[in-house]
Amino acid sequence: MQLAFEQIREMITGAVRIWEEDGLLRMSRFTEEQENLYKTVSEAFYMKSLASAGMRLMFRTNSRSLTLKLVTAPGSTRTFVSYDVFVNGAPAGYLSNYTEPMPEDYIPAQYPMGEISGTVALGEGEKTVCVYMPWSASTAIREMSLEDGAFSAPAKPEKLLLAYGDSITQGYDAPRPSQRYVSQLADFLGAAELNKAIGAEIFRPELAELSDPVTPDYISVAYGTNDWGKVDAETFRKNCRAFYETLSIRYPQTRIFALTPICRVDFRQERSVGTFDRVEAIIRETVADLNNVTVIRCFDFVPEDANCFSDRYLHPNAQGFAHYGENLCAAVARIL
After folding, report:
1. How many CB atoms lie within 10 A of CB 327?
2. pTM of the full predicted structure?
3. Helix (H, G, I), strand (E, B) or coil at 320
4. How far is CA 316 from the centre of its chain?
């Protein structure tokens, strides 16, 4: 039983725009104004804005199977793609453009973009299904089908997490989108995720100034690791303040989590902002008077162990994200 695009549209979370084009259902996590901002930054940043990071299909059904026909296109500097299908919070299957197991050195490998399709068994009875879409590529839906005669209904969370950040928040380098730390945080909060992260990004006040058609219950902001070597300390302080102040004023009733950078293996170096711990210090000083902003120190959330990073120093792998997500959720639980 093939679902109509209007039915599928109601199941999508994490998108601010959804439209039909060329027989496909397309979606974006950025408004047109925000996408246009990234067009002025660079072609690479604009390409990353097209990724389906944080988007999900969320619905209830009694169907024993789910069939998806999807089209992917570049949305990052990585080419591996996975759609993670979960049933009642547990993994049921994956649709990927790679075969298991992934090679140990999976980052430079090249995987095909384009059509991805397959059927995943969902089991008996009524259940809640969640399909985590890839952070590494854009997604368009060609077809979604359930067992003939099955019912389906959207199962969107009532709460919303708005997540800003750089490559680690976008998802680099989680093999599966469900492994990302923001996916884990959203699940912990019982919230949908609206992801605004762009790989290699820094605090960009212009992005915070461009509003979204939502009022989030929570906001997480995780910049700083790129700012450390891209701007000087005074520029960093100015951009950081402008970003948080804009969000604090626009969303006065929203709890904002200021996530300081996680450990990176080269943190003992000194760069344009100064020492790496100076990044956290400036963030703390800058937001101290903003009552709805809570700083969470994330440096110790991922061990200083090259085995926790896909590139041996910066981007978490599955192991690194497991540490990050578990420790961040525990920290948020203490705050809430």
Report:
1. 17
2. 0.97
3. helix
4. 14
